[in-house]
Amino acid sequence: MPDVSKFASLLTLVIRGHPGGGAKLTNPVSGNIALPSSLTKLDLSFNALTGTVPDLSSAALPQLVYIDLRNNVFDQSSRALLPVPNSKFNPGMQYLDISSCCPPTPTGSYVNVPTAALSGFTVLVHLGLDYILITGNTFPNLPTSLEYLSINYCSASGVGSPRRPLPAWTNAQFPNFDTYIKLEHLSLRGVKFTRAHPSSGQVFSRLKHLDLSFNSFSSGDIPAASSLNADLTYLALGGSNIRLTSVSPTLESYFSTLTRLQFLFLVNIPFKSVIPSVNAAAGLTLLDLTGCGLIGPIPDLSAFSALQYLKLEQNSFVSHLPPLNGLSSITYLSVLSANLYGPLPSFVGVTTLRTLLIGSNRLTGSIGKLAGASNLVTLGMQENAFTGPTTAFQSLQKLTSKLRRKFVGWGVVWWLFSQSPWMVRIQFYFAIEFRYNLFILGYNNMVLLGLYDRPGNYRSWGFWLFNQPDLQRVSWY
Fold first, then answer.
1. How far apart, in whole angstroms, are the C-alpha atoms of residue 361 and residue 313?
2. Which of 303, 237, 282, 233 is nearest to 262 (CA)?
């Protein structure tokens, strides 16, 4: 981090990394680094800064009203970033976001913020505390001036670490946000609320972004489309323990009522209905209906020309995969375990598609039609009944040139089988009762490897697709 102490009148310091993984600052930060006392805005988000968070107290920075430290890797000495009382900060703080600012310890301990540290703010507009463990017996007493509130996964487990303890307030009734008349963005994903689902409330009619997914509500309907703001652009519900009744909202009501939606995430909600043939929500860019018990055919999706991400996994369709030509913006499509059958549609002109996951269905016929998806990078097609040559892979140049995970051990396979079409099955045993079959298909410089445990039982199945000389893995299931 550069030394900016010499800029005595500096008001705004923004050194923001690229959220998509581009340029980032990675150097250590010293806790005693000097920042100009005139500073009113500090944004160091989306970097990979290590070390200690500088002194941001009102004594050092009396004018500071904007702090954004999201997505950094500050060390353990920064864990007291919000001590009690919060008089450490300027009482006029308007923007505070420390989401994912410190990684967990090896034992799964995250940054702890007591609820008392969040009381006392009076004009706070933006508060972001994703992946921050909020401790205390009651939900934080937050200022009603908030317009943006994000407390995602405040009790979720870290990768490879024990689950963090649940705050006591997650066992209480869902907080009443009706007095937050300015609130437009409410995101409480994975907080693990366990009481009744909030099915109504004045706050819902004002929000433009609502995420209540992956909680553990014990009862109650999901919010009806009629109770939500007609200008809602982001809606995420479901995840676990959703039980619908005869008076519960229907899937069609969300499509027909919320016409300005751009992001619709309704996962593991047992609608058990067909996908409505309505195009009122034609502005959708992301649609995820995983595990919703959807039945019948997949309708024509050409009305959703803005759709970039479509996920229809783990449903009970009785359908072909419909043509994708009308999805002119599609980049990701997953229909894993969706009960699809029949041949693939034409992929001619589907040049934006980069990820295609069609495994665990009953699809048949040639894979030659995939050649139209010329920019495909990731392909999963296990547990189907495709036939014919593998020549289609020759035109999918990016499929084997983007992912850089190398498996040098397969070099012997390449040395033996890389010049002509071939297919080999190798059978081997881990134990008497576990027999595995390895299929190796090759054409010129490319090889497709498939693994399953025994015919008719596809619990363990995978495909690798490599090209010479990198031996790059494309997908594993």
1. 10
2. 233
